Amino acid sequence: MIYDRIAANKRNSIILFIVFFLFNIFLGWIFGEILGLGYFGLIIAFIIALVMIFSAFYKSDALVLSISKAKPVLEKEFPHLFHSVEGLALAAGIPKPKLYMIDDTAINAFATGRDPQHAVIVVTKGAATRLNRLELEGVLAHEMSHIKNYDIRFMMLVTVMIGTTALLSNIILRSFLWGGVRGNRRGGGQLGLILVVVGLVLAILTPFIAQIIRFAISRKREFLADADGALLTRYPKGLADALRKISADVEPLEVANEATENLYISNPFKKKHKSWFKGMFNTHPPLDERIAALDKM
User: Fold this and answer.
1) In 10 A of CB 134, how many CB atoms?
2) Residue 103 domain-assigned?
């Protein structure tokens, strides 16, 4: 059951990522055709993506920790945290991540870093003090799974790709405003007009579509981390009970923002989405669905 869920979530996440990547390539081609650059537009899109990836690859974890006001945890203050992280890292077969804490009574946690060798697990003070040992281990195992499965790198790359599409769509929109649309002369006036219309529609809708795909990928990864975390602890009830406490906790996390929202184990803003349309913009699946899936395990 657990292995089936892990395999399904990996497959669905990869499909979503491929679709998103192809959409970026298509947008780059449209960008080149509209500006009369031809396939050079794809090269520009690729270069922009490379620059953004390399700039974010080595600095993203430090930036996230700074934004979240997370501080290193001393072992003498929370020895049970260190012992749990050590045991779970051993079970997962990865190096022990660094441990940081956010001084906030809300219950939450996240993992960041570029790979298992440079990973960090961040917990709130509320999670460390309000969850019992088994519940806390369930939360830590969830985050350990994000590290083991390279979700921390995966989501960073998705974020970079979203930035790339936003930048390209902004350039296309500005080209309309500046009167710089030249089109592809090889295709004639009719093709040029079609490209202009398609380019304008894409430039307007791309950020909207990119966010929907980003949130869908994030939700799939949360289900996967739940399943893999349960596999690490061999006790799905621990994480399920932790999520029940998180669900009952109405306190928002003050340091969270929209850039870091998808990193946390649960929505840090405590927003409630009643409609299907608004639910598309939620970075996390509903807690009751995650709890039900864990209970079945």
Assistant:
1) 15
2) no
Q: What is the pTM of this model?
A: 0.79
Task: Compute the CA torsion angle 146, 285, 11, 121 (nearest 10 deg).
Answer: 0
104 and 125 in contact (C-beta within 8 Å)?
A: yes
SS3 268: coil
Provide the β-strand partners of residue 84. Answer: none
| Residue numbers annotated as active site | 143
CB 155 within 8 A of CB 263: yes
CA–CA distance, 118 with 133 (Å, rounded to integer)? 26
Three-state SS at 99: strand
**How far apart (Å, rounded) are the C-alpha atoms in residues 155 and 112?**
10
Q: Is 96 exposed, middle or buried (0-12, 13-18, 19+ CB in 10 A)?
A: middle
Q: How does pLDDT run across 35-88, given as a tens digit for each residue?
A: 677 677 778 777 776 777 677 777 878 888 998 999 999 888 899 999 999 999
**Structural domain boundaries, residue 230:** 2-64+150-296
Split into its structural domains, the chain has a count of: 1
Query: Over the stretch 177-206, which tens digit does the pLDDT of each residue have?
Result: 665 555 554 555 566 667 667 767 777 777
The answer to whether residue 117 sits within a structural domain is no
> Going by C-beta distance under 8 Å and a sequence separation of 6 or more, which residues neighbour residue 37?
31, 44
Q: Which residue in this structure is represented by tokens 């089936």? A: 4
Residue numbers in the chain where pLDDT is lower than 50: 185, 274-278
What does the alpha-carbon distance between residue 95 and residue 98 come to, in Å, rounded to a whole number? Answer: 9
Within-domain flag for 11: yes
Q: Confirm whether 199 is domain-assigned.
A: yes
User: CB neighbours of 54 closer than 8 A, spacing ≥ 6?
Assistant: none
